[in-house]
NADP-dependent oxidoreductase domain-containing protein (Labrus bergylta), 225 residues
Amino acid sequence: MCKRNKPHKVSVPINKPRQRSLVCHWLRVYSLTYSVRIITVCLRGSLSRLQLDYVDIVFANRSDINAPMEEVVRAMTFVIDQGMAMYWGTSRWNAVEIMEAYSIARQFNLVPPVCEQAEYHYFQRDKVELHLPELYHKIGVGAMTWSPLACGLLTGKYNEGVPESSRAGLKGYAWLKERLCSDEGRKQLSKSKSSTCWPHKLKCTAAQLAIGTPCVCVCVCVCVC
C-alpha cells in the first residue's frame, strides 16, 4: 500500500523457504497515479517490510483512468525486469481494460498481465463465467477469485440473524451488517437457506461447497478465501 503522508501498513516478514508458497502483492496507490516511479517505490517498500527479495505476482488494484495504459504496462514490466516480481496481474479490471493492456504489451514487446482477481460466488458470477473465459481461451489470462463465501453469507451463520461474535457484529463492519439487512441481502439469505439441501446430499458443509464451486470454472486458477 502507498499513501501520501500516511504511516505504512504493518507487514509480517515472510523470510522463509518458498518452495510451496505463493506470495502475492496488491498495489493500492491512494491519491497518486500509477507510474514507473510510484509502483517501484511502493513495491520496494513492501519487499523491505516483508523481508523478501521478490514477490511471485504483483497486482494493479483497480485501473487508473488518469494513467495511460502503456505507462502502467511499462511500469509492471520494469519491476519484473528488476527482479522484484515474477509476474503481474490485474484486480477489478474489466475485460476491455485487460485486453487493452495485453495488446499494448504485445505491440511494444512488454510483459502482459497473466491473471485477473475478481469476486466470485453464487451471487456474483457474471464476470468470471461470462467475460473472463473468453480472455482465458484467447490470451491465457486466468482468474484469481476471492470471497467465495460472500463475506460469510453462504456459511449459514447469518440465517437466523447477525451473531455478536460474527464479523458483521464487530466494530468497523457496519457496512457488512447493512448489506445483510438490505433488501438485496435478505433475498440472498433466502436463496442461501433454500439451497441447504445440496450440502447435505453431497455430504459436506455449506462453506465447503461454496469454496469448492469456484474451482469448477475452467479459467479459475486460484481461489482466495
